[in-house]
């Protein structure tokens, strides 16, 4: 995970709320590095323990997020993909097609820039941007710290767009109901077997950009076969955020998956 890829060291994460004022605050994540030479095995053991401690802490915060969502009748989804698969474009079209029928808010994760939050706001939804700096994933604490500022309406959908990365986000539960993986036909159709953890961790895969299929060498059947070889349960929908192909099915999936969000707290009528 991140101690391996090096993204998690002393990362400062900045964020800004809808009003546009950005503020930065740093987190010391206390990644101690034993770079003692000649103690390779000790170091490896320490890294494993450190990873487990980070993930255990993350899981506890994720449970707190889940409780918060349950209490408000909010359904949260974690969108993951490699960079450029079209997560933001999928969200923009989703927001426009839902057209206010369900309140929707977005937490945008990127290493830098406000660009995606600005796109989401232009599409008509509330958005906060989290910049992870050198970090390659969102963690549960980052999500927790944005929840106050988002002031989620009861019954909302919360879409969390993770940092574009098919590796580390697979390990970090954010308190979501499900991870939704966005794949695209401009990537290799062997992605599922190269990055099996992410495909295993995801409930649904949206295969985006299918409008480009006539122009690319991408074998949909083989891609789906690879995806099911690592996760037999994964659902697959072929979509295009550009021309709207498959959005009826995607919006139906979202409604079905979030339909029970009021049930745990009857005081919020649906
Ligand atoms: Mg994006």
Describe this structure in words.
The chain has helices at residues 2-5, 40-72, 87-98, 115-123, 140-150, 191-194, 196-201, 220-230, 247-258, and strands at residues 12-16, 22-26, 75-80, 104-110, 126-131, 157-161, 178-184, 204-208, 235-238. The protein has 270 residues and is α/β, with parallel strands linked by helices. It has a single domain, classed as P-loop containing nucleotide triphosphate hydrolases (Rossmann fold), CATH 3.40.50. A nine-stranded mixed β-sheet has the order 2-1-5-4-6-3-7-8-9, sandwiched between helices. The protein is globular, with a radius of gyration of 19 Å. Helix 3 (87-98) runs parallel beside helix 4. Mean pLDDT is 88; it is low at 17-37. It binds magnesium ion (MG). Magnesium ion (MG) binds at residues 87-88, 116, 161. Residues 87-88, 116, 161 line the site of magnesium ion (MG).
Total domain count:
1
Which ligands appear in the coordinates?
magnesium ion
Strand content: 15-25%
Distance between the termini: 40 Å
CATH H-level superfamily: P-loop containing nucleotide triphosphate hydrolases
CATH topology description:
Rossmann fold
Number of strands: 9
**Helix tally?**
9
